[in-house]
C-alpha cells in the first residue's frame, strides 16, 4: 500500500467514526436534554465536516506534480487545518453564547446516568482513533492527519467534561453545573480553534519549521566532507508531507564542473536518505575565496594562501543566514 493510500484510508476511518459518534451524542442529548451534552454534540458535527474536508485534502495532496502545481498539491493540507480551525472557532463562539443563556436560565437534566455511559464510550473511541491518527500523521508527515487526530483529542476532552458535569448534577441536583461545564467547554473549543488557525496560516505563509531545519543542518554537519567549506542561506519549505530545500555550499574554486556535480548529487542523496518523505533539493555551489582558507580543511590544497585555524560548526543560527562565514 502506498503512503497516499494509507493516508486516505486513515482519513476515511476518521470520517466514519465521526459520523457514528455524532449520532450517539445527539441520542444522548435526546435522553438528557443537557446543555453540556448538546455542546459536545455540536462540536462533534464539526468533526464530520472537517474529517470530510481532511479526506479530500489528503486525496489532493497525493496527486502528482503538474504544470499548474510544480511543487505538488501538498499545501492543501494546511488549508484543511485552517478550515477545521475556523469551524471550531465559530462553534466555540456559538457554544459560549448558548451556555451563557443556559447559565442564566437553567433547566432540568433528565437521565444523566445514560448520558454518562454514552459520552464515556465516545470519549474512549475518540481517544483511540485520535491517537492512531496523530501517530500515523507524524510518521507519514501529514499535517492534515495530525490536525484531525488532535481534533478528536479535543472531542474526547469535551465528552469527559460533559460526563463529569452530568455526574455532578445527578449527585448534587445543582443544574448550573451543566451550564457551567458548557461554558468552560466553549472557551476551550474557542482557544483550540484559534490555535489551529494560527498553525494553518504559518504553513501557508511558509513559516520556518525550526525542527526540520535543525535536522537538515545536523545531517550535513554529521556527513561533512573537507570539500564542503561552508553552508549558508539554507531554507526549507514544506508542501504537505514533502520538503523543498535549497542552500549554498562553498567548494574549492578549482573543482571541475563534473566534480562539483558529483558533490552536489551526494549531498542531495544523503538528505533524501535522512527523511522518509519526498525531498526536492536545490544546492547552489559557490567557489571559495582566499579569505576562506583559514576555515578550509582541504588537504594539500594547491592554492592555499592562509593556514587553517578552525572550522565553523553549522547551526540553525548561522547556516540560514544569507552570508558566508568568516572568523570572528
Here the CATH topology of the largest domain equals Alpha-lytic protease prodomain-like
H and E string: HHHHHHHEEHEH
Going by helix content, strand content and strand pairing, the class is: mainly alpha
CATH-assigned homologous superfamily of the largest domain: Cation efflux protein transmembrane domain
Q: Which regions are unreliable across 5 or more consecutive residues at pLDDT < 50?
A: none
Number of continuous helical runs:
9
Radius of gyration: 27 Å
Provide the helix percentage. Answer: 55-70%
Could you state the oligomeric state of the chains shown?
single chain
User: What's the overall geometry?
Assistant: elongated
Average pLDDT level: 81
Quick synopsis:
This protein is mainly α.
Task: Characterise this structure.
- This protein is mainly α and 328 residues long.
- The protein has a 3-stranded mixed beta sheet, covered by helices on one side.
- It is built from 9 helices and 3 strands; from the N terminus they run αααααααββαβα.
- The mean pLDDT is 81.
- It is elongated and about 90 Å long.
Give the secondary structure arrangement, pairings included.
Blueprint: H1 3-32, H2 35-61, H3 76-104, H4 112-140, H5 143-172, H6 176-204, H7 210-222, E1 230-239, E2 242-251, H8 257-274, E3 279-287, H9 316-319
Parallel strand pairs: 2-3
Antiparallel strand pairs: 1-2
Helix pairs in contact: 1-2, 1-4, 2-3, 2-5, 2-6, 3-5, 3-6, 4-5, 5-6
Main attributes of the structure:
328 residues; mainly alpha; Alpha-Beta Plaits; 9 helices; 3 strands; Cation_efflux_TMD_sf; transmembrane
Amino acid at each position: 500500500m502506498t503512503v497516499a493510500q494509507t493516508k486516505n484510508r486513515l482519513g476515511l476511518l476518521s470520517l466514519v467514526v465521526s459520523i457514528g459518534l455524532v449520532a450517539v451524542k445527539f441520542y444522548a442529548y435526546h435522553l438528557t436534554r443537557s446543555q453540556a451534552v448538546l455542546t459536545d454534540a455540536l462540536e462533534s458535527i464539526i468533526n464530520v465536516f472537517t474529517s470530510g474536508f481532511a479526506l479530500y485534502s489528503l486525496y489532493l495532496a497525493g496527486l502528482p506534480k503538474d504544470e499548474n502545481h510544480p511543487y505538488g498539491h501538498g499545501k492543501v493540507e494546511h488549508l484543511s487545518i485552517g478550515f477545521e480551525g475556523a469551524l471550531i472557532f465559530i462553534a466555540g463562539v456559538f457554544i459560549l453564547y448558548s451556555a451563557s443563556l443556559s447559565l442564566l436560565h437553567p433547566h432540568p437534566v433528565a437521565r444523566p446516568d445514560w448520558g454518562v455511559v454514552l459520552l464515556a464510550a465516545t470519549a474512549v473511541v475518540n481517544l483511540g482513533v485520535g491517537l492512531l491518527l496523530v501517530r500515523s500523521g507524524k510518521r507519514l508527515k501529514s499535517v492534515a492527519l495530525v490536525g484531525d487526530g488532535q481534533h478528536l483529542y479535543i472531542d474526547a476532552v469535551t465528552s469527559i467534561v460533559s460526563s463529569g458535569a452530568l455526574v455532578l448534577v445527578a449527585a448534587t441536583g445543582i443544574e448550573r453545573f451543566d451550564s457551567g461545564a458548557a461554558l468552560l467547554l466553549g472557551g476551550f473549543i474557542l482557544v483550540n480553534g484559534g490555535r489551529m488557525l494560527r498553525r494553518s496560516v504559518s504553513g501557508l505563509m511558509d513559516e520556518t519549521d525550526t525542527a526540520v531545519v535543525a535536522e537538515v543542518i545536523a545531517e550535513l554537519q554529521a556527513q561533512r566532507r573537507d570539500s564542503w567549506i561552508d553552508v549558508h542561506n539554507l531554507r526549507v519549505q514544506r508542501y504537505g508531507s514533502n520538503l523543498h530545500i535549497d542552500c549554498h555550499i562553498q567548494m574549492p574554486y578549482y573543482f571541475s564542473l563534473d566534480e562539483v556535480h558529483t558533490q552536489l548529487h551526494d549531498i542531495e542523496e544523503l538528505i533524501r536518505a535522512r527523511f522518509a518523505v519526498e525531498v526536492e533539493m536545490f544546492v547552489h555551489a559557490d567557489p571559495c575565496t582566499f579569505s576562506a582558507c583559514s576555515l578550509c580543511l582541504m588537504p594539500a590544497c594547491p592554492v592555499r594562501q592562509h593556514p587553517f585555524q578552525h572550522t565553523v560548526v553549522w547551526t540553525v543560527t548561522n547556516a540560514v543566514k544569507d552570508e558566508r562565514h568568516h572568523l570572528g
